[in-house]
Amino acid sequence: MVNLVGTAVEAPVFDRVEATAATNISSTGFRINWIMPSRPASIDCFRINLTEYVNGTPTCMTLYTDGSEDSFYDFGEAKSGATYSYTIQTVRLNRMSDESNVITVNPAGVNGIEATEPLAVLPIGNGIYFRCAVAHTNVRIIDMTGRVIKVIDSVSEGHCELLPYGAYMVYSDQCRRPIKVLVKD
User: Fold this and answer.
1) How far apart are alpha carbons 117 and 171 in whole angstroms?
2) Angle at 173 between CA 120 and CA 29, to 5 degrees
3) Cα gap 91→68, rounded to integer Å
4) Residue 139 near residue 154 (C-beta atoms within 8 A)
5) CA-CA distance, 97 to 83, in Å (whole number)?
6) Angstrom distance (rounded) from CA 128 to CA 151
7) What torsion do the CA atoms of 72, 76, 81, 85 make, to the nearest 10 degrees?
8) 37, 72 in Cβ contact below 8 A?
9) For 108-156, how does the pLDDT look when each residue is reduced to its tens digit (9 = 90+)?
10) What is the side-by-side strand order in the sheet with 136-143?
11) Which residue, 12, 124, 155, 174, has fewest beta-carbon neighbours within 10 Å?
């Protein structure tokens, strides 16, 4: 006769993990992200179900985190020309939550991204003053309704433009991120 003695542990209750968009995308990898679920309060690890598509052929991989409180995983083995999709699951006591929503990543789609050149636009009296290390071309000044107020072929350090009172967005071919400026009397 064999007697087994043990302690029963209540099965964990899982909230579904929410996968979020990948970040830090490059041709060699990306960061897989998710929102930490509230249940269970303690987890063993996260299971990442990663599918790689090369020429339309899927290859499934399973990755595990180390059980830390991080809500991301850095994947650094992306193949040239491949696209990826992922879902996340919580693991606790050898049980798993339902899979999260699916996120798709295309590392090949980030080729050709270039840094922009610094540009500062400062309000002065009834206009704006440009600070820049290099000439900026095709400078567009847009009001808050989206209307293009001015297009300037080129501006260099110290260039001034007179504008009526208002809020504006300014960007150029070298600085694609709009800069907000408020012109006051």
Assistant:
1) 11
2) 95
3) 12
4) yes
5) 25
6) 14
7) -20
8) no
9) 755 444 456 788 899 998 899 999 888 999 999 988 888 889 999 999 9
10) 148-155, 136-143, 166-171, 179-183
11) 124
